[in-house]
Design brief:
103 residues; 4-stranded antiparallel beta sheet; 4 strands; Calcium binding
Length: 103
C-alpha cells in the first residue's frame, strides 16, 4: 500500500466529500471514489486463503464492504478489515483514505 502522509489523505478526503453534509454523505462520496478508482478484480489473502475481490458495495447500515469470492463461495468483508496484497491494486490509496476518514 502507498505511504501517503496525513495531508495527502486529508486532501483526498476533502476531494471526495466536498459537497457532503453529514457522515452518511461523506461515506457515499468516499464510496464513489472507491468505485471509480479501485482496480477490480484483484486477489488478496484472507485468513490464509486466497480470495478474489470482485467488487465493493454498501450494506443496509452504510458500511463499505469488499465482495470476495473463492470458487463458488462468496463473502463480504468490511473494507476497513480487508488485508491488501503487495503490491496493492491501483486505486488502493482510496481504501487508505477511507480508513483514515473512519479513524
Amino acid at each position: 500500500m502507498s505511504t501517503l502522509d496525513r495531508a495527502e489523505l486529508e486532501a483526498m478526503i476533502d476531494e471526495a466529500t466536498v459537497d457532503a453534509y453529514g457522515e452518511d454523505e461523506q461515506r457515499t462520496g468516499l464510496f464513489t471514489m472507491l468505485e471509480e478508482c479501485l482496480a477490480l478484480p484483484f486477489t488478496t489473502t484472507v485468513l490464509g486463503v486466497e480470495v478474489t475481490v470482485c467488487g465493493i458495495d454498501r450494506t443496509p447500515d452504510g458500511r463499505v464492504v469488499a465482495l470476495c469470492s473463492r470458487g463458488r463461495v462468496r463473502q463480504s468483508i468490511g473494507i476497513l478489515d480487508l488485508p491488501l496484497p503487495s503490491p496493492a491494486p491501483e486505486g488502493a490509496e482510496w481504501i487508505e483514505a477511507y480508513r483514515h476518514w473512519a479513524g
